[in-house]
Amino acid sequence: MTSLVETHARMERLLALLPERTPSEGTMRQYRGVHERMRRAGCYDPMACACPASYNRARAALHFCARETLLRLKADLEARSRAGERKAASLTAEALALYLDRVEPAILAHPPCADPDYRAASPFRAKPDAPRRGAGSKKHSLKDKPADWREQVFAATPETSPYKAAIAAMCLSTCRVGEYAETIRDQQYSPGVRVIKRDGFLEIFTIAQKSHGGKYGLSMSGVKVAIAQGGAPAAHLATMCDEAGGAIEIAVESTEGLRKAVGRIAARLGFSNVSPNSFRAQCIADGKVTLPNAEMVAAGAGHCSIRSQSRYGRAEHGRRGGGGLVGTFSERQPRPASVERMVRFEAMRLTRAIERGRAPPRFAA
Q: Going by C-beta distance under 8 Å and a sequence separation of 6 or more, which residues neighbour residue 35?
């Protein structure tokens, strides 16, 4: 009898700790499913249970279902005791004691909150000392740099450097580092990055490195820069064009050497995490606040879709008219927003049809 009294007292203490909540029917079914998986695994700890539920859901399921189970066992025990069914009451008391032994440590280790925050991230995934994914990317590092960081890198480049012209072009255009190499690209000769001076403007363009014949990008793309607003890099390229008869071709012997030279110069200036792709990200960020629409930004970056520019610099990190940017051009136009939405919808509809086994014949397994 003493054991039964102690078990009853433990149950009452635990019930007083668990709040009474009334979730929706769907949520209750989810909680009961999680609780059943905990029971089968023999572990009720939300942090250690082998179930796909998040920590917050597993903890909420433990609290709700533990209260529900304890109340059911309590009612069953009282009913059998009043009916004089000693053997059945003894079995119920043993089941109650066994259940308490399993759930009580987990509930005390993860007690319910007065005002639970179901938006909180799971402890399995949220670590306070862990950096956010992508925090060190070029896109996120732009906010830590001054507005004229590109001009500072160009000014710090020695006049005798073989990469002086390439760095000047990077300050003004969205060309990738691989596009400064003389090579055969998309079954046509690419001399590197081309610069043409016309009526106070510079046209900087190249054959896109990741175009694959125009399938995944624009075959040729470039930017138009005002020399008067482009600063020292634009003036340097304009002088080279005048000396060469109006147009030049910029190519380097080693793109890896260009990448290392940019990193060393930026490090001497105190700029961290700088590479040629940082210049590209900054130019795209400038285009987002300078150009009138996303299609023009995609054309200058060599993207066939307006979605790709989301991986580069954000508008709040750009400068209106930065680098003297006034426009862009490309061999063919990127997909506009309306077509992009249609393509995404069709791909989503096809994926769902395949998952439900109702795919078109040519996609069926």
A: 61, 62, 64, 65, 66, 69
Q: Mean pLDDT lowest for which of 39-48, 99-108, 221-230, 307-316?
A: 307-316
Residue 348, both tokens: 């989503």
The answer to pTM > 0.90 is no
Burial class (CB in 10 A: 0-12, 13-18, 19+), 58: buried
User: Span 69-84, mean pLDDT?
Assistant: 86
- φ, ψ at 313 (rounded to 5°): -55, 145
Provide the pairing of β-strand 201-207 with 183-185: unpaired
> How far is residue 13 from each of residues 9, 57, 62, 80, 107, measured CA to CA in Å?
6, 23, 16, 22, 12
Q: What is the DSSP letter of 251?
A: -
% of the chain surpassing 90 pLDDT: 21
- When the pLDDT of each residue in the chain is averaged and rounded to a whole number, the result is 80
Of residues 260, 275, 300, 67, the one with CA closest to residue 173: 300
Which residues lie closer than 8 Å to 188 by C-beta, 6 or more apart?
207
Through-space distance between the first and last CA atoms of the chain, rounded to whole angstroms: 66
Q: CA 343 from chain center: how many Å?
A: 21
Which pLDDT band holds residue 102 (cuts at 50, 70, 90)?
confident
Average pLDDT over residues 197-205: 92
Which of 333, 327, 330 has its CA nearest to residue 201?
327
| C-alpha angle 298-271-278 in degrees, rounded to nearest 5 | 15
